[in-house]
Amino acid sequence: MISLFTGTLLLLSAVSITLNVVLLLYSRRVLVRVFNASEELSSLFTRMDAYKEHLESVYEMPVFYGDTTLKSLLDHSSDMIDNLKRYEDVYSFTQPDLLEQLATATEEMEGSDEEETPQERQ
Fold this sequence. Notes:
Number of strands: 0
Shape: rod-shaped
Distance between the termini: 101 Å
Strand content: under 5%
């Protein structure tokens, strides 16, 4: 027969293995949620930045330049983006260089706006 000490060790080992499996499954579930939240926040931040850029381009049009409503929307967009930047640690989990990518894309857009098209030259 199995001694009391051996039986106790087997029982403790079974409990330990069970707890480890449960903790492993729980950890995986939490990591999947964090990863999904990070992806969603990254997408949201990218969309907000694109919205701000679009709003700035509309505000700079001669027809709308100086419009107080558009200026308020532009300021609100900037405030929202600043608030999202506070959560950089969350979305940088999946895309650590997102802010650098957005800055590069903005610079490229500004550079392409400055170039004249062949139709404008005529």
